[in-house]
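seq:
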Amino acid sequence: MSVSKPPPLLQIKNLRRLMLGPVSLAANAGECLGISGPSGTGKSLLLRAIADLDPHDGEVLLEGVRCRDLTPVQWRTLVGLLPPESCWWLPRVADHFLNGLPVPLEALGLAPAILQEPVVRLSSGEKQRLALLRLLANRPRVLLLDEPTANLDPANTKRMEAVISEYRQTQSVAVIWVSHDQAQIARVASQHFTMVDGQLQEQTMERDV
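struct:
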């Protein structure tokens, strides 16, 4: 008697958007797919299409459920995008965390007092670390990370990588991580793809021995 294999956590079928695609890809629970490539090749377009923020052709499925079978709010809660620059719609940091913090602030090198700060006084690096916490508070099943550490120093980059890795492993989520940093992709990803002319090409992973 054959046992049916469960679908990948995230499945992308013939996705197209402007100069992007067709892209077909699958990510299982606990996997991190790293994507690199020159600017303007479609990496951010891919993440925005997966998050259903832009019109696109093709299908994206979460645990076998099609994107179009969920409401936009449901999909974007389960498939969460962290863009390079986050948007903040309330004046004070604490106003964005009414249901508490998913990870202690100290894990990202932030002091508790930052919750009382006006958002306008935050640095770009502080905003990015807090945006990750805000995203994780939704308990997404898939993380779409677009250069999440580009504005951070090495110490805070290490903290971000550690928090994301722990969430990926403990919550059995899938991660798609866009980065220009080849060393970072080698640290965080289980598979590596490059984006060339709107197409993904799988690369051999190179790791330190």
